[in-house]
Amino acid sequence: MSVRIKRREFITLLGGVAAAWPLMARAQQSSIPVVGFLHDGSFEPRVHLVAGFRQGLSEAGLIDGRDVVIEYRWAQDQFDRLPGMAADLVNRQVAVIATPGSTAAALAAKAATNTIPIVFSVGADPVKLGLVASLNRPGGNVTGVSYFTNELGPKRLGLLLELMPGSTDVVVLANPKNPATDASAKDIQAAAAAVGRQLSMLYVTNNREMDAAFPTIAQKRAPALMIIPDALFTSRRVQLVTLSTRYAVPAIYSSREFAEVGGLMSYGAHLPDIYRQVGGYAGRIVKGIKPADLPVEQPTRFEFVINLQTAKVLGIDVPATLLARADEVIE
User: Fold this and answer.
1) pLDDT value at residue 31
2) Which of 117, 195, 197, 272 could lock 96 by a disulfide, CB 3.0 to 4.6 Å apart?
3) What is the third-level CATH fold of 28-148+271-301?
4) Are the beta carbons of 266 and 253 closer than 8 angstroms?
């Protein structure tokens, strides 16, 4: 026995199913926890880092789109957008807010809620920033990963001076809008004073100011450049490295991502691992663990990378002692 459906009846039936589908989808998704992701930068330069974050969720047993839904908020280097974005995630009643690699985002999230869990990764000391009470017992609704990349400033200065012992003017490039900048600058200045060197601070907040800074740097006597870690510089790393090479200014950066696009040297934590750690903590919190019960983690991997090709372009002979200590030499 066959059943025949008239064309008009079929279209009506199909239309009813189509109309009902969004309601069914929303009903299914309403029970799926939402993970908020807040950052002061932009997505495109951080595709591989977001993959690390999702890997961390996966290692915690949560697959994006199946077990959780990630709501991304990117401020595009506009810090003043962060409070509104954090409030939006709070209103969305997300299960946790992750702020990997963004001190400003972590502080904005903490200011927006004292109940929704927050998982950060920051380069500065999270206790000094007021994010947690202590590393072992963070307390409250906030925990995460501290990779102390800003405290690595003196180490980077030492590597730069070992490479360029004749540099008389060491310039430090920083974003004044970053809450961690002042503390980082003080650490580097103290390290420079200990070896009888003076530093020049240059502050930039956008790509135009970055372009304008390099003619000033190049006019100095035997200049060398350090970069205080910031999302702006990570987002604009190709521009920053291109300017350093064009004006023949030797520079050291905070992560291998800079060396991979032509930066001379980098020393710092392996960022994909940091994002993975944040994702893992976020996943554990979604599964019911309280942030106060998760101590602030430390990095599992640091890397010293030298781009020998860039050194040759700049006419720099890298000492064998530095090459021997490098975790990777890009040739």
Assistant:
1) 83
2) 117
3) Rossmann fold (3.40.50)
4) yes
